[in-house]
Amino acid sequence: MTEIALGGRFTFPGTSLTVHRIGYGAMQLAGPGVWGPPKDPDAAVAVLREAIAAGVNHIDTSDFYGPHVTNQIIRQALHPYPKELVLVTKLGARRPPDKSWQRAISPEDLTAGVHDNLRNLGLEALDIVNYRTMGSVHGPAEGSIAEQVSVLADLQKKGLIRHIGLSNVTAAQVAEAQKIAPVVCVQNNYNLAHREDDALIDDLARQGIAYVPFFPLGGFSPLQSSTLTAVAGRIGATPMQVALAWLLHRSPNILLIPGTASVAHLRENLAVGKLTLSPETLAELYGIAGAGAAVKHA
Fold first, then answer.
1. Residues that are catalytic
2. Which residues face 163 on adjacent strands?
3. If you write DSSP's letter for every residue of 121-162 in order, what string do you get?
4. What is the domain class of 9-219+250-261 according to CATH?
5. Can you give the residue ranges of every domain in the chain?
6. Can you say whether the dihedral through the CA atoms of 35, 39, 42, 48 is positive or negative?
7. How many CA atoms lie within 13 A of 222 on its CB side?
8. What is the pLDDT of residues 264-287, one digit of tens each?
9. In terms of C-beta density within 10 A (0-12 exposed, 13-18 middle, 19 or more buried), how is residue 33 classed?
């Protein structure tokens, strides 16, 4: 893959970490429900190695995926890691035996989470750690995150974390965190249909801070999906590829981390960097959010 084919490059602010804009999200490497080992561990290893061979140098993970499973697979597949690989992990949740998702936000929880990630990834320091709030299922809730960010800043001073990011947060929480420590990336729910973060993305772009959308196809209405499918058919791509390509076009600070447990699907995702969307197509896609609103108010 060429640099252009992987969406160009992005350097996290105040760091020496430069990545291709199309990366890889490792959550699907765990078993069903992000719990336990995958049905085919060899296939999971193969997907990771294929991603690296294709030029991917940004992998998003967490030790609460599995739990522990995903990081252990990454270590098995890729350690010792390529020099240019940036591993981004996240804290803020735990998975008890009932397979639920619970908050893990005390200083003790966060410190233990950093050490879990270090141990299972086989690292002495973590490149970037996102503090993920457990607001609603797919969205943030207002409230102070100063205590949690302060814990990460302390761990950064101790050399266990190189850089700090945030996930599932509001603009006010980003501003609050920035008073405590530099923030290099924000990871939130955003896609063609759900555009609540438009202003935040533009503000982060002005600061050179990465924005990493999750659920790139989440929550589409039938009308919105049919529009996306029509565009995809016209340009010879899948709806998922078009949705990802639109995100690349949306702003130069947007980084993609599509996840998959399939080598074939991985190749589809990486091919997105070769898609060019015309101004007319972009305008049509921009209207998808409005189409959803029209359905709600009909």
1. 65
2. 128
3. HT-SSEEEEEEEP--SSSS------HHHHHHHHHHHHTTSEE
4. alpha beta
5. 9-219+250-261
6. negative
7. 1
8. 999 999 999 999 999 999 999 999
9. exposed
Close Cβ partners of 286 (under 8 Å, ≥ 6 residues apart)? none
**Half-sphere CA count of 210, side-chain side, radius 13 A:** 31
Encode 50-116 in three state secondary structure.
Answer: HHHHCCCCEEECCCCCECCHHHHHHHHHHCCCCCCCEEEEEECEECCCCCCCEECCCHHHHHHHHHH
Non-local CB neighbours of 241 within 8 Å, separated by 6+ positions: 232, 268, 269, 271, 272, 275
Give 248: exposed, middle or buried? Use CB within 10 Å, 0-12, 13-18, 19+: buried
Residue given tokens 């639109």 in the structure block: 246
- Residue 291, H or E segment: helix 288-296
Alpha-carbon gap, residue 38 to 114, rounded angstroms: 24
Tens of pLDDT along 134-182? 876 668 999 999 999 999 999 999 999 999 999 999 999 999 999 999 9
CA distance 25 to 214: 9
Please tell me the distance from the alpha carbon of residue 58 to that of residue 20, in angstroms, as a whole number. 7
Place of tokens 């995809």: 232
DSSP label of 33: G
